[in-house]
Amino acid sequence: MDFYNFYNAHALSAYYADVKTARGQLLGETLFPIARTTEMSVSWVKGYNAKNIVLQPAAFDTKAVIRSQREGERVQTELPLFKEAMVFTEEQRRTIISNISRYGEKIALDLMVPVYKQYGQLVDGAMIQAERMRMALLSRGQFVIEGNVSLNGNSVKYDVNYDPSGAWAANNNLAIQGTSQWTEANKDTSTPIDDLLTALQSHSETNGGVVGKILMNSTTLRAIMTSESIKRYMRTPISVIPTRAEVLEIIERETGAKVILYDKFFTDEAGITQKFFDDAYVSLLPSAAVGQTMCGTTPTEFDLLNNPETKPNVAVTDEGIAIQTLLIRDPVNIETIVSATLMPSFEGMQSVFVIKGY
Questions:
Q1: pTM of the prediction?
Q2: In what order do the strands lie in the sheet with 173-175?
């Protein structure tokens, strides 16, 4: 049997496509849809406020008054590169070949699923990086990604601020202070629903923002639930302790927006488990997308996919993630290399308002 019929870049790409279909879209992919680009850098205009401006009155037979154009803030940055490899050792390969020989090629794919899962983590890791960046933008307007120096001295660091002027931080953020913070200690003085309504009004008046979604995690929701002020909005007797479902209903009823609780985790470069969306933050979002996930062309796709000799060992997913399988002759190993160039654009940054509750 030819083992390489079962393990190659195209087989791994096909497996990832099936897994992605079964998994469904990540939250960030609905807010920042995938877009392919051939450019090495991305640029976009950060939207100005969306407040409506009336058309000027005019007399008949007169020239039109020239309206000055509203300039948005242009952001431009290089697409960051992510790349990592895993090695399929001689021992692993011989064990699988032995089992296939013993039980027949009909079960080859079943035997290969654990292998696809393990090596498919490299492919999925690219989209996890994208989700990490997207969620950081929705709470802080910037992200920092740093390589693990202990891995071959990987000191690469991407520190990208989407708000270099500080205008978004000044106009689209509300930090709850002092005894108003949403904590157990402030349960008698905090007013989270009022804070949400204040933010909605400020966002509408300053930016013309219309909020369709409210994003937070469950830890932040529990902090909101500690406030005694929640009882003022309850339809049941005031002595009853509000349930999680009741608090969600109150928030949605009072704001007119759908609450999204996002509690997924990822493991960073140093092996530390982190939340995609941090505690204490609440993001007010429009119903529509706020940007795109720009996926560029990797050197692997540009150079190796266009080379007749290397093309059979290279596959590219719909998101532009490049997969390369490379046969190492001594010792005989298969190196699987996955690379991606991607980052979000954030044209709708002005339509996002952030509350930091504590």
A1: 0.90
A2: 173-175, 353-356, 281-285, 213-216, 258-261
